[in-house]
Amino acid sequence: MEKFSLYHLLKDTVSTHAERACYWVRLDKQEFGAVSYANWYTDIKYIQTFLIYQLNVKKETKIALLCDNRYEWNLLCLAIDTIGCIDVPRGCDATEQDIIYILNHSEASIVIVENQKMLMKLSEIIGEIPSIQAIISIEGPEKYNDIDKILQIMEENSIRTSKSSKLSELKFFFLIDVLQRGEELLRIHGDTEIRKRGESIQPDDLATIIYTSGTTGIPKGVMLTHRNFCWEVYQIQLISPISELDRVLIFLPPWHIAERVLELTLIASGASMANSNIMYLANDLQTIKPTFLVSVPRVWEQLYKRIFDNLRKQSETKQKIFNFALLIAGLYTDSIDNLLGRIASTEQESPVEILLRKLLSFGGLLISVPLFPFARKILSRVKDIFGGRLRFALSGAGALPVHIAEFFRYVGIPIVDAYGMTETTAVCVMGRLPWPRRDCVGPPLLGAHIQLRDEYGRIILKPGVKGVAWHKGPHVMKGYYKMPEKTSEVLIDGWLNSGDVFMWTTTGEIKFAGRAKDTIVLAGGENVEPEPIEVRLSSHPFIHQVVVVGQDQKSLGALIYPNVERVKEELKKRNINLPEDIENWNRIPQIQQLFNEVLKNEISSSNGFKSFERITNFYLLSEELKKGVELTETMKIKRNVVYNKYEKVIKKMFAN
User: Fold this and answer.
1) Which of 568, 593, 572 is nearest to 582 (CA)?
2) What per-residue confidence (pLDDT) applies to 330?
């Protein structure tokens, strides 16, 4: 049943699952301790009481949360949301410019930072953010080298910039003190005010403002309501077998919409979870023994690589046995999937084609069935890497390579593909368990409406024809905060223009076909806006034109048309004469070194770029981009045209 608000979702869950484990909190590198739903909710009440009576927060107060994946994130986030306040989340990799813009634009009056590093970053820019009235640090004083010195730096910077008259009244607290003081205040005042505020929350009230980058690089605040989240959670519960018996390892950024909805769904189902990261993931899988996982393609690629790296260290005999088992499991799975119609297609098959495919599949099944138990036993060692209890997995925020999805399917771990956006409260399309149909993303959620439209706005119903996806339903955002013009550009008559290109399959799923918008989604799930990077690089004297690429890759690459004469002059100083054909420049070591230095220096943290925005591959084009061909009349890049024209070059660049 869909809940009325996040307050009701928490209240109902805690009353049902009070004594069950909600979180597994790391005690040391290998050990975890259980926190029950009852104890977890008690801590939430302590925080809420502190916010209400100590900091005097009102309904709709914006509270920023600058933190990465850890137990306290959800504790604080839901404490904020379930008394009618609005959280404004961001990760610790946010640049100073991002923090200044987001906190000023949202007018957040309270900022919660994760640790000393984030407090130091905030102290450098504190004078630029006049709305801040209080700061809370999640990590305690024992994690700080000299908290008094940091607070002194903060005061000095606020005086120097002198943009705020309130900074002299700035309050600072550690979370441990917040909990202790909150407990005292709760004994004095009781929880009447908490319940009153929670019950007053309406479905259309804002729960969060999540800032994502726009095409100009300026973050846009996606406004999501309590109804958005509650509807989304209920829809996922309807189509997935998540229950109180599930235990999940979570390691994505918590402010990422997919991770956030996952955690809410687990809480609503009475399941338990443990926070992890890439450093501890291998050991944590053995300790926690999760029943399912949610991750991005980059992590599945790393796990796949690790499995085969370990395999190469085995004897030749063991390698042959494993590869034979994989061959048999693949033949069996492909045959079953074909016979049961688990492979999607965008083209209608004739009766003869269907019969032939079924006969071949039946033959494959006859060959593989006798050997399948042996193959499954050998391949069970792969499942053991995940703790031995993994039933299924979900992948989103980018396309999962086919060979990786097939490998895990063959070993008995179905990976469910999912698609969505921050603007659609995460998932709006998802494969169906126990064995999702292959070669597609999946069908829309039961209550989600999707139209594919061509460039003239006509609705596409025919399978195999590309169109931009438009979304409608209770999962669609309220709009972009304080940006009515940006909102009206993408929200028309309740329909959201995703900018993502899909095709219908013959069985009603959608198949990803590209992105009409500029945002690049890396294999790790990071969203990158290419234009600010391109603007920066184009300003360099050696670069005339540049197009950033990297969709579904581990890192970014760049197609560069150089400033030919300027580069020749530079290399001549080094006594190197360049050939006339720029194509040949790609094979000259000195050219490689020159442009690698440019890319490293220009796209750096000192210039305001994040680590995942760095360029690790490039290719020099032999001809410049032309207006009316690769460029619009206003000189904007036609990205799909460039990607199609240089498809082989891009593939080769990343293959190397």
Assistant:
1) 568
2) 95
pLDDT, tens only, 280-291: 888 999 999 999
Q: What is the pLDDT at residue 168?
A: 56
Q: Is 221 buried (19+), middle (13-18) or exposed (0-12) by CB count in 10 A?
A: buried
Other beta carbons less than 10 A from residue 405's beta carbon:
24
305 CB contacts (<8 Å, ≥6 apart)? none
Percent of the chain, pLDDT > 90?
Answer: 61
Asked whether the beta carbons of 405 and 415 are under 8 A apart, the reply is yes
Are 568 and 581 within 8 A, CB to CB?
Answer: no
Residue 215, pLDDT > 70, answer: no
User: Is the pTM here over 0.90, yes or no?
Assistant: no
Cβ–Cβ under 8 Å, residues 257 and 420: yes
Q: What is the per-residue pLDDT across 331-381, written as a single tens digit (0 to 9) for each?
A: 999 999 999 999 999 888 899 999 999 999 999 999 999 999 999 999 998
Secondary element (H or E) of residue 7? helix 6-17
Distance CA 178, CA 137 (A): 10
Alpha-carbon gap, residue 449 to 160, rounded angstroms: 53
Closest CA to 334 of 300, 354, 360, 371: 360
Residue-range domains of the chain with CATH: 6-201+240-290 (3.40.50.12780), 291-517 (2.30.38.10), 529-655 (3.30.300.30)
For the four alpha carbons of 319, 320, 322 and 323, in that order, the dihedral sign comes to positive
Tokens of 328: 């048999």
Amino acid at position 609, single letter: F
Q: How far apart are the first and last CA of the chain?
A: 51
Angle at 62 between CA 56 and CA 65, to 5 degrees: 105
How far apart are the C-alpha atoms of 229 and 425, rounded to whole Å? 7
Enter the tokens of residue 176: 């441990």
CA neighbours closer than 13 Å in the CB half-sphere of residue 152: 4
Q: How confident is the model at residue 112 (pLDDT cuts 50, 70, 90)?
A: very high
